[in-house]
Amino acid sequence: MKLGLHLGYWNRNPYPGIAIAQEAENLGYDSIWTAEAYGSDCVSPLAWLGSHTSKIKLGTSVMQISARTPTCAAMTALTMDHLSGGRFQLGIGVSGPQVVEGWYGQGFKKPLERTKEWMNIFRQVIKREQPLEFQGNQYQLPYNGPNSLGIGKPLKSITHPLRPHIPVFMGAEGPKNIELATQIADGWFPIFVSPYRMNIFDESLKNKPDNFEIAAMVQVNVNDNLKDALFPTKMMLALYVGGMGAKDENFHKNLMERMGFDVQEVQDKYLAGDHMGAFDAVPDALADEISLSGPIDRIKERMTDWKKSQITTIMISRTDDANADVARIRQFAEMAL
């Protein structure tokens, strides 16, 4: 099992990640990942970190496909791959309707179709075998629709790719979206996953290639008091159940319910403004299974269960304390390796 470091997106203020990225590289971490929501973007910090490292792989987890056309994303990936010496990995996701329609001003319908067409175009640009032509329902290149001058021409990237195939990971929660990842991507990001309940993904993963990667984001909370150790994960889960999706359209809540956990009370309390009540209502078992929490010896023991699962990379998440994070990733490397 490989180790990754997930820095996420910036919150109110920038996160200074150079020291932690360099320490992760020195410790033998395989990859470092940045994200975006509706604040900082995922590529600029990654380029900055790449300029201060030399070996660790650089990934986006995730780049939102509504934020960029597939050709724009391919240009970015091609550029990042050259600048990093072939270390770039692209992670993509559709985000959710609140962000897509509220932030990017685009319709959210048919996300699977959009993802499939987006990836088709992206792959063509990177391969650079011929001028780009694509006529789909979501994307048309050249474009000859309304407001077109009708003079667009098929083009091929001026810059030659460093590699004809850049690894692409997909963030996905729904069964059909996960299945699509096994068909068109090199790997999958499960945002909430339990090594004890991987069976809920059996149907979606049944035809995955042998080299298909599964990189899971996992909170690591070392504390001799298990209840205290679980609290950061319970806070995060309450936020996603209550605040990261509409009441009747929340992919995260749907996933947790497919895992067998009742989180309706969590959503109800969070939406009513009772955030502490929502944190407390998160099932301890859910928080425990998707994280590595508790005393060091307990985490070491549970690491064995993660290593037995289909997960190929554990990406540990950061806190808001950069200095403490350097010590955390060193401690986790010692526990895991």
Walk me through the structure:
This protein is of the alpha/beta class and 337 residues long. Helices cover 43% and strands 15% of the residues. The mean pLDDT is 95. The termini are close together. The protein is globular, with a radius of gyration of 20 Å. Helix 8 (226-243) crosses helix 10 and helix 8 (226-243) packs across helix 11. It contains 14 helices and 13 strands.
Following the backbone from N to C, one meets helices and strands in this order, namely EHEHEEHEHHEEEHEHEEHHHHHEHEH
Large-scale geometry: globular
Contiguous uncertain segments of 5+ residues:
none
Strand content: 15-25%
Note the main attributes of this structure.
two-stranded antiparallel sheet, eight-stranded parallel β-barrel, 337 residues, alpha/beta, 43% helix
Short description:
The chain has helices at residues 18-27, 43-50, 70-84, 97-102, 111-127, 175-184, 202-205, 226-243, 251-258, 264-271, 275-281, 284-289, 296-308, 322-336; strands at 2-8, 31-34, 57-60, 63-64, 88-93, 134-135, 140-141, 168-171, 187-189, 213-218, 220-222, 292-294, 313-317. The protein has 337 residues and is an alpha/beta fold.
SSE layout:
Layout lengths: L1 E7 L9 H10 L3 E4 L8 H8 L6 E4 L2 E2 L5 H15 L3 E6 L3 H6 L8 H17 L6 E2 L4 E2 L26 E4 L3 H10 L2 E3 L12 H4 L7 E6 L1 E3 L3 H18 L7 H8 L5 H8 L3 H7 L2 H6 L2 E3 L1 H13 L4 E5 L4 H15 L1
Helix pairs in contact: 1-14, 3-5, 5-6, 8-10, 8-11, 10-11
